[in-house]
Amino acid sequence: MKLFDDAPGISPRGTWRNWAGNYRRQPAAVVRPETVSGVSEALQDAARMHRGFKVVGGSHSFTDIAATDGVVASLDALSGLVSADRETGLATFRAGTRLRDIAGLLQPYGLALPNMGDIDHQSLAGAVSTSTHGTGLEYTGFGGAVRAFTIVLADGEVRHCSADENPGLFQAGRVGLGAVGVIVEVTLQCVPRFLLSAVEQPEPLEDVLSGFTERCEQSDHFEFYWFPGTRVALTKTNTRLPGDGQRSPVTTARRLVDDELLGNGLFSLTCQVGARFNGVVPGVNALATRLVSKRTYTDESHAVFVSPRRVRFREMEYALPFEEAEEALRKVVDAANAFGESVSFPIEVRSAAADDVWMSTANGRRSVYIAVHRYHREPHAEYFEAIERIFWEHGGRPHWGKLHTLDAARLRGLYPHFDDFLAVREEVDPQRRFLNPYLRRVLGA
Q: Which residues contact 111 (CB under 8 A, 6 or more apart)?
């Protein structure tokens, strides 16, 4: 049995696939520009050939948002720190910089990202463009932390954007879905370096559901996982501490056992067995909750936020109004338990602050994020559809980089600035150079 899957992205033969393995394309050409002018030239070449143009980063989106039969651009060579200011906390990065590299780049300046999700494979531009987020009611997703960016438009023109300079394009590009241009540099509002004290433990599911909103409001960062069919939630509470405090990280031995052996190796094997013999899944899920014991540790923020995720899966995630969290969660639990097939992957629940970014999933409202997963070798559509209907009942907005079935007609009613975004897109890409099947569905033809 194969425990871990090969890397996503562009193969030596020029084939692109995403991490989940559910989308593949053979583009007409692959370019790897190393400079902003190189990006501009590549766009001009694509226009002359009347080809579509898409950028791929970590290829961690579960949708085909980056897929194209035209020209694919990798910005891996356009990465690294441009500048950082310890006093203002502003740091500018090249767009291809991977999230996993940012902590090391900021370390000499005593700075850190204000928040992170639990995966750091993505490129910075990809995380910004799809409304990627972490957890914590006082903290926005990546789009809300953007203070400026430089973007190359479909005709090769380079523009700098901020709240004061090209403000419409700034609003559209902070979560731009790859529809308005190629972001080549991003300025983020960072914070002084800090530690996180983490408490991870199993708790009764009923207690977690009834106390979820209060836990989120009282904690810096709170989240939980729940395996369908069980009555136990696996919670994680992170408390922010000064950066000069005492670290007490997870030992190498325990990290090897908890994260690699149990969290990835054994979990991969049980998922593969469950995919072939579905009847064993309830017992495996119950065993998974019993194997988890309380773990407390304190470490650098990025080391606590991020967890290794090596078992391949498909994911759907929606942002719902925070005030409706408990009601929606109870419906999701009932629906998952009632699903005809046993599900081996847990449901993940987080929260985030409201922001003012036009196409952000948290635009104008505090949000609870509910993510459902299915092992990549198991059919996911029927299960996801059952849960998705609950999300619709509560005005949920789908994560742009994760699976969903909404189209422009439905999404327009969920985003107050949907038509403002389309107006900017019309101005900067009238030839629809960045259009692909996914964007045609979610933005309209």
A: 84, 86, 89, 91, 190, 191, 192, 193
Distance of CA 281 to the CA centre of its chain: 27
Q: State the helix-helix crossing angle for 267-276 and 281-291, rounded to 10 degrees.
A: 170
Q: Whole-angstrom Cα distance, residue 103 to residue 100?
A: 7
**Which pair of tokens denotes residue 42?**
């590549």
Residue 205, domain member (yes or no): yes
Q: How many domains in the chain? A: 1
Is residue 422 domain-resident? no
| Cα 323 to Cα 137: distance, rounded to the nearest angstrom | 12
Taking only the tens place, the pLDDT of each residue in 62-106 is: 999 999 999 999 999 999 999 999 999 999 999 999 999 999 999
Tell me the residue ranges of DSSP E strands in 208-290: 221-226, 232-242
Angstrom CA distances, 122 to 51, 140, 225, 261, stand at: 25, 17, 22, 24
Looking at the chain, how many residues does it have? Answer: 445
Pairwise CA distance, residues 320 & 361, whole Å: 9
The position carrying tokens 């327009």 is: 412
Sign, CA torsion 293/299/301/303 = negative
Give dist(CA 164, CA 161) in Å, integer: 8
Nearest-angstrom CA–CA distance, 52 and 27:
10
CB distance 112 to 133 below 8 Å: no
CATH classification of the domain holding 148 = 3.30.465.10
Share of the chain above pLDDT 70, in %: 91
Domain residues for the domain of 250 are 76-403
Q: How many CB atoms lie within 10 A of CB 47?
A: 16
Is 128:357 a contact under the CB 8 Å cutoff? no
